[in-house]
Design goal:
Rossmann fold; Glutaredoxin; 12 helices; flat
């Protein structure tokens, strides 16, 4: 039997405590060096979005990010955390944190006079902004690292969505801003006063045309596709028939119906606004979405057998099996619909198609890209920040422009004190049953069992 003296116990305790402290310190150093973290916040507020990580991982040039702060400000830790997260993804990113009060000369040199001013530099290029956030920082990095801007034209003159309109229900100003942040020049295209689609056009968007383009305009679009152009077409029920006939040349088929889903509509919402849960993993656009898009008043869009060779099509977005297509357009006004056998067709409905169009009657590489979606409301100012809507529109443009490295889910816009929370009608019913029926019923049952056991023991 070994008997330890009192000082030996104290020595063992000191050595054990020192060893534990050294282990914890080393673990902290390793975690800080490799950027490992566990984000348990519901919205993953302290984790970079997949889109940001995609952009940073693809950097091939050195980028310097300088943040100007004031010592003692409670918001400094948010800025430091954002810079730490960005620097941990790419070895090409270097960050500096400068106190304006202690280094006013440096702040004047950069032309920064306010708190939370950010300066992003790459070579001789510089981008400066205030009130930092992940989207603004990623946009600045793109602007200083990319050599040229892509050009996106939105067709006008036929009742399409207006990229300059700030109207909440109909305008497209927010999606125009989102594309600008990804370094696109967004312009309006008027084919009536031009001989052809401009040669600098990387993508042409036709967003919700209500009137038929003239035959000359249709042929200009066809010529654009023939020379390897890219088209994003957002359809609407009862939209331009000439545009539908144009898409039929490439095997895209739609009809005069509307998609309705009573189970995947928003909880207590109308029947024509529904989430689109089936996202094809075979296409980069739909595979990059982390949330289903939210469509409103969508029409079905399918890829049928192509009437010409060299066209490869893929249906990338589909509704749930509980949905159906209907000709009851009164639902757009009333917000309510009911399935009628013989008139409506139940089943999953394709609402998004991607095309690769090559030379006729050949199997060579495609020279043109198409994306056709059965809704244009999803990208309006009212819906664009809902679920995966912004990612769907911007990633469609990125894929069409050949910018596959920019595909990914973006950080959701957050308004202080306001959190988005979406429930489908089916999820709402399940939550109601769980919280209002099952949970109170279970508590009542347990209480009854306890009372009965006490009475049985007292007998």
């Amino acid at each position: 039997m070994i008997v330890r003296r009192p000082w030996q116990h104290w020595l063992l305790l000191a050595v054990s405590t020192g060893g534990l402290a050294a282990f914890l310190a080393m673990a902290q150093v390793v975690l800080a060096s490799y950027g490992w973290r566990l984000d348990l916040t519901p919205e993953r507020s302290y984790t970079l979005s997949p889109h940001a990580r995609q952009v940073l991982a693809g950097l091939s040039r050195d980028v310097v990010i300088t943040a100007f702060v004031r010592s003692g400000d409670d918001r400094n830790h948010q800025i430091e955390d954002l810079m730490r997260r960005v620097a941990a993804v790419s070895p090409h990113v270097r960050t500096n944190l400068i106190d304006i009060n202690r280094n006013p000369a440096v702040a004047r040199q950069y032309g920064v006079g306010s708190y939370a001013g950010f300066v992003v530099e790459c070579g001789t290029r510089r981008r400066q902004f205030e009130n930092p956030s992940e989207p603004l920082l990623v946009a600045a990095i793109l602007q200083v690292t990319r050599d040229s801007r892509r050009v996106v034209y939105f067709l006008g003159g036929h009742g399409e969505r207006d990229i300059y309109s700030t109207d909440r229900q109909q305008g497209y100003s927010l999606i125009s801003l989102a594309l600008t942040q990804e370094l696109y020049d967004v312009r309006v295209l008027d084919l009536l006063h031009q001989a052809e689609v401009p040669r600098d056009a990387d993508v042409v968007v036709i967003a919700g045309a209500r009137r038929d383009p003239l035959p000359l305009e249709i042929e200009q679009l066809a010529a654009f596709a023939h020379r390897g152009g890219a088209l994003l077409v957002l359809l609407e029920p009862r939209g331009a028939t000439a545009l539908i006939d144009f898409l039929a040349r490439y095997g895209v088929r739609t009809d005069d119906t509307m998609v309705v889903d009573s189970e995947n509509r928003l909880f207590a919402g109308d029947y024509v606004t529904l989430s689109v849960p089936v996202l094809s993993p075979r296409h980069p656009i739909s595979a990059a979405l982390q949330a289903p898009p939210l469509f409103s008043g969508a029409c079905p869009v399918e890829f049928a057998a192509s009437p010409r060779g060299g066209v490869r099509g893929l249906e990338i977005l589909s509704t749930a099996a509980s949905s159906w297509r209907t000709r009851d357009f009164d639902a757009l006004r009333s917000g309510e619909a009911a399935f009628v056998s013989g008139r409506d067709v139940r089943g999953s409905q394709s609402v998004g198609v991607s095309l690769l169009v090559g030379p006729p009657h050949t199997d060579g590489d495609a020279v043109a890209r198409f994306v056709v979606l059965g809704d244009s409301d999803f990208a309006t100012n009212f819906f664009v920040d809902s679920l995966g809507n912004k990612d769907l529109l911007v990633d469609s443009v990125n894929w069409l422009a050949g910018e596959d490295a920019l595909l990914g889910a973006r950080a959701q816009a957050r308004i202080p004190g306001v959190n988005q929370f979406f429930l489908t009608d089916e999820q709402g019913r399940e939550a109601f049953l769980l919280g209002t029926v099952i949970e109170p019923g279970a508590v009542l049952l347990v209480g009854m069992v306890v009372v009965m056991r006490r009475r049985w023991r007292s007998v």
